[in-house]
Amino acid sequence: MRIERFQIANLRPFERAEVRPAPGINLFVGENGSGKTSLLEGLHVLAYGRSFRGRVRDGVIRTDAEAIELFAEWREDAHPRLRRVGLRHTGARWEGRLDGEPVAQLGELCAALAVVTFEPGSHALVTGGGEPRRRLVDWGLFHVEPDFLTVWRRYARALKQRNALLKSGIRDNQLDLWDRELADAGEPLTRRRQIYIEALEPRLRAIAAELAPSLGIARLEFQPGWARETLSLADALLVARDRDLANGYTSVGPHRADWRVDYSTLPGRETLSRGQAKLTALALLLAQAECHAAVRGEWPVMALDDLASELDRPHQRRVLARLVASGAQVFVTGTEPLPALAEVGGEGALFHVEQKRVEPVVAGFAGP
């Protein structure tokens, strides 16, 4: 997957900007506050429907503007024709088009453009709550299994209906009905998540051994959200019913699922330093990109924000060498050119970001 043109309007400092990236490494250099991260943020919004820094309505839209407008053109190995996606988002409402046709659901846009983003908050994959970890797995499944979104939505709808009944204190057969629906959707959802985790683990081990060898072999431990080894989801819901009625929400099920990374030299993730957590998060994202490529036949676009401040030079070199070897298109930001890029022989383009503008400096460069 290679983006050939990316346009943004009214996103944070930019009134309008256009980038025509190279197929390989694209380095965006500028002072702090120049808008480098905002470029990656716009790409993330187009691919995920949300910012990695918060909701679209929370400061993403430029002051005095009504909406952000995003547009991208890209090519895929499996689809030789040029593909296009556009999104206009006010924070409360959105309009989107895919290949010239309007789309009814934001998921249609998100399924088209695959972007994996590493940014300063990515360590939450390791040190934060379960939601970002569930999102990582579900994103991976969403892009490689065409019917996954249908299963996920079925479960989400059943969960919403059951919670509404629990809050109202209703104990009639409606609760039995939604328990069955929740179990019928939740069991296959959980199986798919477990299979994905099992596919992710060996790739994570290999990457973690390269980026953080002192931590030992990485293992992923899946936690399905209920005592799955002894109870079906239907039975678990029945056992928890009185407690759920008292609390007014569903306490067991895939929406409570989680997973964790364990290393042979460390007893638990709580002992990881911030730097180790960042390396682990990056290893997870690279493993996910490799899983995507194994199924789809090509890498997603990789977006790496402020790589030099997140990783020291040896780790930068290892990451960039892996990405150059993969052939992935990469967007990297920094306050200055990366010496590690010259060391790995990466080719691509250099852009300077300043005064709310993005200007190409060198096309087809090899290092700084």
Characterization of the model:
With 368 residues, this protein is an alpha/beta fold. The chain has twelve helices and 14 strands. α6 packs across α7. The longest helix has 39 residues. It is globular.
Brief overview, please?
With 368 residues, this protein is an alpha/beta fold. The chain has helices at residues 36-48, 106-112, 124-127, 130-144, 148-168, 173-211, 233-239, 241-247, 274-296, 307-310, 313-326, 339-344, and strands spanning 2-11, 14-19, 25-29, 68-76, 79-89, 94-98, 101-102, 115-118, 218-223, 258-263, 301-304, 330-334, 347-354, 357-366. Helix 4 crosses helix 6, helix 6 packs across helix 7 and helix 6 (173-211) crosses helix 9 (274-296).
Mean pLDDT figure: 88
Q: From the helix content, strand content and strand pairing, which structural class follows?
A: alpha/beta
- For the terminal residues, how far apart are their CA atoms? 25 Å
Quaternary organisation: single chain
At the fourth CATH level, what is the homologous superfamily of the domain at 123-299?
A: RecF/RecN/SMC, N-terminal domain
CATH class of the domain at 123-299: Mainly Alpha
Order of helices and strands: EEEHEEEEHEHHHHEHHEHEHHEHEE
CATH topology label of the domain at 123-299: Glutathione S-transferase Yfyf (Class Pi), Chain A, domain 2
- The radius of gyration computed from the alpha-carbon positions, rounded to a whole number of angstroms, is 22 Å
The amount of helix comes to: 40-55%
Instruction: Report the uncertain regions.
Output: none
Described by strand count, sense and barrel closure, the largest sheet is:
6 strands, antiparallel
Strand content: 15-25%
Count of DSSP-assigned helices: 12
Strand order of the largest sheet: 2-1-4-5-6-7
- 3D shape: globular
User: Count the strands?
Assistant: 14
Please tell me the CATH architecture of the domain at 123-299 by its name: Up-down Bundle
